[in-house]
Amino acid sequence: MTLSKKATCNSHGQDSSYFLGWEEYEKNPYDQLHNPNGIIQMGLAENQLSFDLLESWLAENPDAASFKRDGQSIFRELALFQDYHGLPAFKNAMVKFMSEIRGNKVKFNPNKLVLTAGATSANETLIFCLAEPGEAVLLPTPYYPGFDRDLKWRTGVEIVPIHCTSSNGYRITGPALEEAYQTAQKRNLKVKGVLVTNPSNPLGITLTRNELNLLVDFIDAKGIHLISDEIYSGTVFDSPSFVSIMEVLVNRNYMNTDVWDRVHIVYSLSKDLGLPGFRVGAIYSNDDMVVAAATKMSSFGLVSSQTQYLLSAMLSDDKFAPNYVVENQKRLKSRHAMLVRGLKSIGISCLKSNAGLFCWVDMRHLLAANTFEAEIDLWKKIVYEVGLNISPGSSCHCDEPGWFRVCFANMSEDTLNQAVQRMKAFLEAGRSVEAGQNQSKSSRRKSFTKWVFRLSFQDRDRER
Ligand SMILES: Cc1ncc(COP(=O)(O)O)c(C=O)c1O
Question: For the chain, which domains are there?
Fold first, then answer.
């Protein structure tokens, strides 16, 4: 049987090491009691740190999850067909929550909100609305590996990278934006917009006001769109605080301009509330035509009425929602500090970050060579020998080999400590090989990296 071109086209990106690492984890998942030598999943940006808060709210509000309102069953109401505009109560609760996360500095209008099955669907829907197949969106590197699937696969749209590097802390610059634009033009690709994630996945940093202003100026000058994926907006645990693109537009009085209509926000409850399984996302756009088209398209990925009902009760609870955000950020901050400290104690540093569910970890000094092949060799060692599934920078389209994304919020403290201990043992084993060879200090690093490299080759033999 032959499948359609769309179904078989490889722009989905499932062969990326990002997804391959998950497959390896699934074959041999770590469990403290039942599989203590299994692979620890550190490649999944899930937030499990505040489930107890959600669970105690559910225990105190049993009606919300049991199809009831004021003790009376509303099962039939929820079970019947809903139109694609979503439950008004839920949209009101979502915009209120989005404002709260932004310190109530921006107000959102529920009529400009389109509900989607997660940010995955929101991003794809927006691209479908804004670009034709063969047109391009510019994305700063490194970026979330799922974007190849979400932005390109079914839409036929191309991603052109905006090259950002560690030399300036991965900040977006005017020349980098212009260079990406020119590259697209040289490839005969019409640029329809820029997509940024703020805070960034995989970097865990928020965009500065300077970068946001630069982006607004750029899309203004080029007459293109800006999509701001703010899925991690509630995870900002340290200063500088989160600045939404909407706040920048309002401060600069862009409300009655065409730029205002060309800026769109993507949001979801997958990260801030830790509910990726509920599939709740949204597009927020100032452009009525985008809202209308995206609403029609949302038929392919609606949020179930049962979920909308439950979450409208939870998010409109004035006591619960703000407390949750503050407490969750506190927990993320402490967990982030634990990983940074643990890695530092074994000589590994992280990009300074203030948000997200992961650290961007610098292992350039452990590479046998400054190449992406060497990065994948080291990654294989870390997955198969150390038993940690982390994501190599190359899977995020990073321009420099040796960086890895390491998640910290999808496991217990014990598991995180265990992961650091494993990494420590791995590095010490490398050093003792080196000591055995009794080499001079100056060649230490060289011999260690050679050791990593040699083991990687042994892996390859074993795989064959
Ligand atoms: C930047 C970014 N956008 C979108 C998504 C997809 O999120 P959802 O689970 O809401 O579809 C993710 C998930 O990791 C993400 O990191």
Answer: 5-51+322-426 (3.90.1150.10), 63-320 (3.40.640.10)
Q: What is the dihedral of CA 336, 142, 103, 112, to 10 degrees?
A: -140
Query: What is the Å distance from ligand 1's center to 399 Cα?
Result: 22
* CA gap 206, 197 in Å, rounded: 9
Give the number of other CB atoms < 10 A from CB of residue 293.
Answer: 18
Q: Annotated catalytic, 144? A: yes
Tokens of 10: 């490889």
Which helix (H) or strand (E) segment holds residue 295: the answer is: helix 288-297
pTM of the model: 0.92
| 271 is a catalytic site residue | yes
Q: Comparing C-alpha atoms, which of 103, 123, 88, 89 is closest to residue 267?
A: 123
Nearest atom of ligand 1 to the alpha carbon of 281: 10
Give the Å distances, CA to CA, from 60 to 96, 231, 315, 317. Answer: 22, 28, 14, 12
- For residue 266, list its beta bridge partners: 229, 283
Mutate which of 125, 139, 144, 272 for ligand 1? The one with the most ligand atoms within 8 Å of its CB, which is: 144
Burial state string for 272-282 with b = 16 or more CB within 10 A and e = fewer than 16 = bbbbbebbbbb
Rg (CA), the chain: 23
Calpha distance 447→357 (Å, rounded): 34
Single-letter code of the amino acid located at 193 = G
**What is the tens place of the pLDDT at every residue in 222-271?**
999 999 999 999 999 999 999 999 999 999 999 989 999 999 999 999 99
Only one residue has tokens 């999850």, namely 65
Atom of ligand 1 nearest to the CA of 123: 4
Cα–Cα dist 323/264, whole Å: 28
User: Which class for 447: exposed (0-12), middle (13-18), buried (19 or more C-beta within 10 A)?
Assistant: middle
pLDDT in tens, 190-227: 999 999 999 999 999 999 999 999 999 999 999 999 99
